């Protein structure tokens, strides 16, 4: 299994709300930490996944408040995405706790793709909306 590539937050992915950009950068950092833990065959995986899921819950709430206050028209679609991710994370978590350790690569692949795509596409859409 080859080395898992890190994800990198770029300034052009800004959503024009400093706290949310800051949280996105932190999310990328946590995902990259998770990649390190997996690469090292660490047993710290669950705490890092826990940290991530906890942080995402806070982040989603902040984002949803910003979208609500700005009257963002696609908020429901966005909130559904958040919910879908939360459910998927819970599913992974349960399977992992029940000893399915092959999930590590599936999980990190899903996580990386989802966080990267979500922040650089969907989140940027409300960022554009907030600018205008």
Plain-language structure description:
With 132 residues, this protein is mainly α. Helix content is 76%, strand content 0%. It is built from four helices and no strands. Helix 1 (18-39) runs antiparallel to helix 2, helix 1 (18-39) packs antiparallel against helix 4 and helix 2 packs antiparallel against helix 3. The radius of gyration is 15 Å and the shape is globular. The N and C termini lie far apart (45 Å). The model has no long low-confidence stretch (mean pLDDT 90).
Give the count of helical stretches. 4
Distance between the termini: 45 Å
The Cα radius of gyration reads: 15 Å
The total beta strand count reads 0
Mean pLDDT: 90
Q: Please give the share of residues in helix.
A: over 70%
Low-confidence stretches: none
Order of helices and strands: HHHH
Structural class: mainly alpha
Oligomer: single chain
Task: Give the gist of this structure.
The protein is mainly alpha-helical and 132 residues long. 76% of the residues lie in helices and 0% in strands. It has helices at 18-39, 45-70, 75-97, 103-131.
Features:
132 residues; mainly alpha
SSE topology:
Blueprint: H1 18-39, H2 45-70, H3 75-97, H4 103-131
Helix pairs in contact: 1-2, 1-4, 2-3, 3-4
